[in-house]
Amino acid sequence: MRESPHYTTCPASLKGSRAVVILPAMGILSSLSDEVAAVVGRIGPSVLHIHALRERRPGVANGSGVLVSPDGLALTNSHVVHGSMGIEAELDDGRTVLADLLGEDPATDLALLRLSGQAAYPFAELADSNALRVGDFAIAVGAPFGLARTVTVGIVSALGRSLDSHIAGRRIEGVIQTDAPLNPGNSGGPLLDAAGKVIGINTAIFFPAQGLCFAVPSNTASFVIGEVLAHGRVRRAYLGVAIEEVLLPARLARENGLRAARAVAVRTVEPGSPADRAGVQAGDIVFALAGTPVESVADLHRLLDHRVIGATQPLEVLRRGRKAALTVRPGEAAVPAH
User: Fold this and answer.
1) Which domains does the chain have, with CATH numbers?
2) Residue 109 known to be catalytic
3) SS3 of residue 281 by DSSP
4) What is the number of alpha carbons within 13 Å of residue 167 lying toward its C-beta?
């Protein structure tokens, strides 16, 4: 005989005429387990264990990666594959295939690979990282310490963080912070949302802190993919500002007719830079460039691609709560040494 689920009910006399039904905790946990297992089962075949043979330092660097197209395009971290003589990618089924490094962007710690071999690889879809909220579910998959197909779970604990890159004097802006546990070897693996889409590429952890892990947003990764496929590297336009993502007060956004509550605040302006010549000031809040809304650092990075180098662009900002229209002519950012 099949038993019915057990529910705990408060006596109706304690709550007037209505009984309060408390759902069984095990049912909720089972449902959550099923959801996570389904996501991992669907996306797991697209996650890679990367082996990079170092040219300057003896030995093999191990990391993670994720396939993002059926023709074998895969993302990983620049610091995993930089300076390697050869790269191998271990697939979910245990096979190992060679991978070519199409290009890397040390400024965002991203690298783009193409796997050889079969015509159609399983792949994961890149999400819109602008839609992320603090508190959203996050699933990390990778090969920490070489233990392939390891899964950890947490939440998005902060957005718009700034992180030192592997290039002296440069920072990766707009980074996702998560408490999904990461370890050495998770680098380059995907951070997934509850739907199994890639919201970020895991890149760093803070020692000795626990639960402070970081991923480069998927929108930044999309920009890097496009630039590498077009040029073999990332060509960037340059403004000369230090920026961070901010949430606008609803009243301020409404009074200025802005649909989005997110924008990018200017913290410092480099003297003599294109932004300085355009009249940009510390404290300005950038909400549009060339008529396109700017809701995140990743948005601004995408807009500052090779097409706007040397081209005059309208820049819209909020200054002391009021709209101001500026004109800026971005220069070309120098290629960083690595």
Assistant:
1) 44-115 (2.40.10.10), 133-231 (2.40.10.10), 237-332 (2.30.42.10)
2) yes
3) coil
4) 17
Given the residues 109, 193, 284, 305, the one annotated as active site: 109
Mean of all residue pLDDT scores within the chain: 87
Q: Which residue has the higher pLDDT, 5 or 30?
A: 30
- Per the residue annotation, which of 51, 79, 82, 301 is the catalytic one? 79
124, 325, 144: which is closest to 218 by C-alpha? 124
Specify which residues 270 forms β-bridges with: none
pTM over 0.90: no
Is 79 one of the catalytic residues?
Answer: yes
3-class state of residue 174 by DSSP? strand
Banded model confidence at residue 177, pLDDT cuts 50, 70, 90: very high
d(CA 143, CA 62): 8
> Of 64, 129, 187, 222, which one is the catalytic site residue?
187
187 has catalytic annotation: yes
Question: What is the rounded CA–CA span in Å between residue 246 and residue 199?
Answer: 19
